[in-house]
Amino acid sequence: MSSIDNLPPLRQVIATHELSARKALGQNFLLDLNLTAKIARVAGDLSQVDVLEVGPGPGGLTRALLAEGARRVVAVEKDPRCLPALAEIEAVYPGRLRVLHGDAMDLDWEAELSAPRKIVANLPYNVGTELLVRWLTPASWPPPWESLTLMFQREVAERIVAKPGSKAYGRLAILAQWRADARIAMTLPPEAFTPAPKVHSAVVHLTALPVPRFEADAKVLSRVVATAFGQRRKMLRSALKGMAPDIEDRLVAAGLTPTDRAEQVPIEGFCALARVMADVGKA
After folding, report:
1. How distant, in Å, are the alpha carbons of 98, 112, 124, 170 from that of 77?
2. Of 263, 258, 213, which is closest to residue 235 (Cα–Cα)?
3. Is the pTM of this model over 0.90?
4. Of 125, 29, 130, which is closest to residue 81 (Cα–Cα)?
5. 118: exposed, middle or buried (Cβ count in 10 Å: 0-12, 13-18, 19+)
6. Angle, alpha carbons 125-126-131 (nearest 5°)
7. Potential cystine with 185: which of 42, 92, 109, 176 (Cβ 3.0-4.6 Å)?
8. Element (H, E) at 135
């Protein structure tokens, strides 16, 4: 597919605007409009939805989101070199695309979009995980977004969907799966990108649950999980001993085996432990 609108092919756009990808910005451009259309479709029906896109670059995914019927797209781009190319897309879709020049890490994005909202992005590699953690840890739940459709390095994607007992299972899996359904929707080889990265990539789709799967205080759960996986090779009673002097009794009260390791504990178990640990540190 060379075009999904009346705009030039992406390779021509990149050549015209001299948009060589910059490693410092975590840029790897996805130029195949067939693939960007598939990613946009993973996000589901966009016709009544505002979409946040981070790191649009030359606008391949931006064009796909608009062509797939997104009510409105707000694209956040840090690289000023990309703005003229994105302005050309704005002209073809008047009133449906707003480009913000700035850093997504500093943006109050919720104010820029009307509900319902979805986030769809080929995230820059250098900030992808941090942005995901931010989106998964809002001040209250449910979050301001309905779903996240995000491109990551495949290794990161596998950590998001990992199950207990696997080497990939850890804090990111618990954070994602406690309050969302998460799946890998598609994988992409390095040659799909310009320049080709050294690793495969994958698109992860997360759908927010109305309430968390299991009751737990988010801050206590985060602290327990971070401490447990901070020394994942140790037994729970050793890894968590600094959190409470009676940690073995608390582990047993939560239905856990003190000699297990963090990667053996399912999300429900960590939530049970968070409830048992809720009084730790309180006066």
Report:
1. 11, 14, 10, 31
2. 258
3. yes
4. 29
5. buried
6. 90
7. 42
8. helix 128-136
> Cα separation of 172 and 166, whole Å?
13
For tokens 């993973």, what's the residue? 42
Structurally, at CATH architecture level, domain 218-276 sits in Orthogonal Bundle (1.10)
Report the distance separating Cα 65 and Cα 85, nearest Å.
16
* CA 15 distance to own-chain centroid: 30
Q: What is the pLDDT of residues 239-272, one digit of tens each?
A: 999 999 999 999 999 999 999 999 999 999 999 9
Give the largest CA-CA distance in the chain. 67
Q: What is the pLDDT of residues 181-238, one digit of tens each?
A: 999 999 999 998 877 888 999 999 999 999 999 999 999 999 999 999 999 999 999 9
Q: How far apart are CA 233 and CA 128, in angstroms?
A: 27
- Is residue 269 within 8 A of residue 258, CB to CB? The reply is no
The structural domains of the chain, with segments of one domain joined by +, span 10-208, 218-276
| 272 in Cβ contact with 217 (< 8 Å) | no
Phi-psi region of 278 (alpha: psi -120 to 50; beta: other; left: phi over 0): alpha
pLDDT band of residue 1 (cuts 50, 70, 90) is very low
Residue labelled with tokens 């047993």: 252
Tell me yes or no: is domain 10-208 CATH 3.20.20.70.
Answer: no
Answer whether 176's CB lies under 8 Å from 206's CB. yes
Q: Taking each helix axis as running N to C, give the angle between helix 218-230 and helix 171-179, from 0 to 180 degrees, rounded to the nearest 10.
A: 150
The neighbour count for residue 253, using CB atoms within 10 Å, is 14
CB 66 within 8 A of CB 86: no
Cα 7 vs. chain centroid, distance in angstroms? 29
d(CA 134, CA 154): 20
Closest CA to 100 of 71, 111, 92, 127: 111
